[in-house]
Design a protein that fits this description.
By secondary structure, the chain is an alpha/beta fold. It has 2 domains: about 120 residues, Response regulator (Rossmann fold, 3-Layer(aba) Sandwich), CATH 3.40.50.2300; about 70 residues, Arc Repressor Mutant, subunit A. It has 10 helices and 6 strands. Helix 2 runs parallel beside helix 3, helix 6 crosses helix 8 and helix 7 packs across helix 8. The radius of gyration is 19 Å and the shape is elongated.
């Protein structure tokens, strides 16, 4: 089943970025775009989306007020609140008004499709754009920064639940990233993935680091 998505944001670049990040998601179709709060409800009535990505701050009617009316008039439509900040008070306000996710605009674009799927499935998500402070790593497998973060956490022995908590993602999203990592590395287990990453210098091998310190 294809998920019908409506995007409401007054910044064309944000809308374009959403479109691009979902270009490889054949199960998600953008059925409408709104650039102001007043446009959202009529457009929802015309396009019948499954889910709406709604900017927190828009001209005419702010996102929270729009969310209230959307939840009241179209209770079956799920709403992801999109924000330029990770303000927990704004997130609490959004969840209190019926949002199923509060997503920071600085998230890894590769996470967006999985977040939408999880939101439609009924999982409440608070996703920030936290990224590792380390410099980008050259990888022979074209891994995304998030996938490298997951690999590092994997090497540190973290479980899916621990990674989900650290990165503010659902466990299903972590599994999605792991599946991509395994596919790109051509492996089928955590142990093989970590070994490949060590051998190719994508992540630092703690054994080699310890040897370097002691010699």
């Amino acid at each position: 089943m294809r998920l019908k998505l409506l995007v409401a944001d007054d910044h064309p670049l944000v809308v374009a970025a959403v479109r691009m990040s979902l270009s490889d998601a054949p199960d998600i179709e953008i059925v409408g775009e709104a650039t102001s709060g007043q446009e959202v409800l009529p457009l929802v009535g015309r396009t019948s989306p499954d889910i709406v990505i709604l900017d927190l701050r828009m001209p005419g009617m702010d996102g929270l007020r729009c969310l209230e009316l959307l939840h009241e008039r179209h209770p079956t439509v799920k709403t992801i609140m999109f924000s330029g900040s990770d303000d927990t008070a704004a997130a609490d306000a959004a969840f209190a008004r019926g949002a199923v996710a509060f997503v920071q605009k600085t998230i890894d674009p590769a996470d967006l499709a999985a977040i939408i799927r999880q939101a439609v499935a009924g999982n409440v998500l608070f996703a920030t754009g936290n990224v590792a402070s380390t410099a980008p790593v050259e990888s022979p497998w074209d891994l995304t920064p998030r996938e490298i973060e997951v690999l590092r956490a994997l090497a540190g022995g973290q479980s899916n639940k621990q990674m989900a908590r650290e990165f503010w993602l659902s466990e299903q999203t972590i599994k999605y990233h792991l599946t991509n990592v395994y596919r790109k590395l051509g492996v089928s287990s955590r142990t093989e993935a970590v070994r490949q990453a060590y051998e190719n210098g994508v992540i630092e091998n703690p054994v080699l680091r310890t040897e370097a310190i002691t010699t």
